[in-house]
Amino acid sequence: MEKPMTTIAVVEGDGIGHEVIPVARNVLEAMHPEFEFFPVDVGYGMWERTGCPCADKEIEELKTADAILFGAVTTSPMKDYQSVVLRIRKALDLYANLRPVKAEGFDIMIVRENTEGLYSGIEESGPDRATTLRVVTRKGTERIVRSAIRLAEVRRGRLTIGHKANVLKSDVLFRDICLHEARTAGVIFNDKFIDALALDLLQHPEAYDVVVTTNIFGDILSDVASYLVGGLGLVPSANIGDRYALFEPVHGSAPDIAGRNIANPIAAIRSAAMLLDYLGDKDGAGMVEAAVGMTISRGIRTRDLGGSAGTREFGDAVIKALGRNR
Ligand code: NAD
């Protein structure tokens, strides 16, 4: 029987998503000309055109793909605007957000719970008071810490649990479940208050392997940790559930630099490498990572890294480094 076609949904989104995602897609196409790509339009631009940033139709389209390559979407200042990213993560139950931060001398994997916590979406806002419910469940915590432990087991076997259990009752539950699972699994583990952890991670990045934490803490911690590798333009991420997977740079739509061909496409290209790894092409993922490293070491860099290469030029150089013709 003929092997079924691998399908990749491509969501450029808004802002620099329109620039970095075509570059990442080109890299995937260079590696796997047999992949079938199809576009899905969501985001602020879509909302401006249709009044809806992401409808059920787009969610269903995303569900048909073997993997999703996602750029970034701009959040509208409108009060009732529903976050597209949160909607997709929930609809596809992409509960594990993996954010690797690595360079010479350290290799950290931040594992962020992606469906609950302070991003539960349960909110009320009035003129004088606004509330957001921070939800931590046993089910949500068990599945994220088990994902983190599985990763630690195939990496350096160390797990750090980041929380704020000294202040937040919800984090007492999170911490205790994580500690119990870590003890049962037999990985080397410790736990730290998230504020102290953020500083220590910057001071001693080599001391960390896998870090598991709740939704907003993981979001902030990964942006902070991007300082270690040269900024937001370099950090990729995977959003993994039991059935679906979406790969996106950690950065947003960066409207301040959009449309100028100066955005760094490395985070998007590395997200494409994580996509290949997820689909079972570990060698391909390694080749893409190596091609990015080779391009940087040849002095080809975008402006955020002190160079003058444009987004497209950097992408072309990576394809050249891959030594393949598209
Ligand atoms: P941002 O990540 O878009 O930008 C922060 C800073 O980093 C900006 O100065 C930007 O120019 C720079 N930057 C980001 N990516 C870069 C790249 N690839 N190369 C070079 N420089 C880069 O964050 P923000 O400004 O806080 O948010 C902008 C918009 O993006 C907002 O509407 C926000 O809601 C949205 N956002 C979306 C996502 C997502 O879609 N997953 C994530 C974060 C923010």
Can you walk me through this structure?
By secondary structure, the protein is α/β, with parallel strands linked by helices. It is 41% helix and 20% strand. The chain contains 11 helices and 12 strands. Helix 1 (17-31) links the parallel strand 1 and strand 2 (36-39). Helix 1 packs parallel to helix 11 and helix 5 crosses helix 6. The longest helix is centred in the middle third of the chain and has 17 residues, at 138-154. The radius of gyration is 19 Å and the shape is globular. The relative contact order is 0.17. The model has no long low-confidence stretch (mean pLDDT 95). The structure holds nicotinamide-adenine-dinucleotide. Residues 16, 20, 72-75, 85, 232-233, 248, 251-257, 263-264, 267, 304 line the site of nicotinamide-adenine-dinucleotide (NAD). Nicotinamide-adenine-dinucleotide (NAD) binds next to loops.
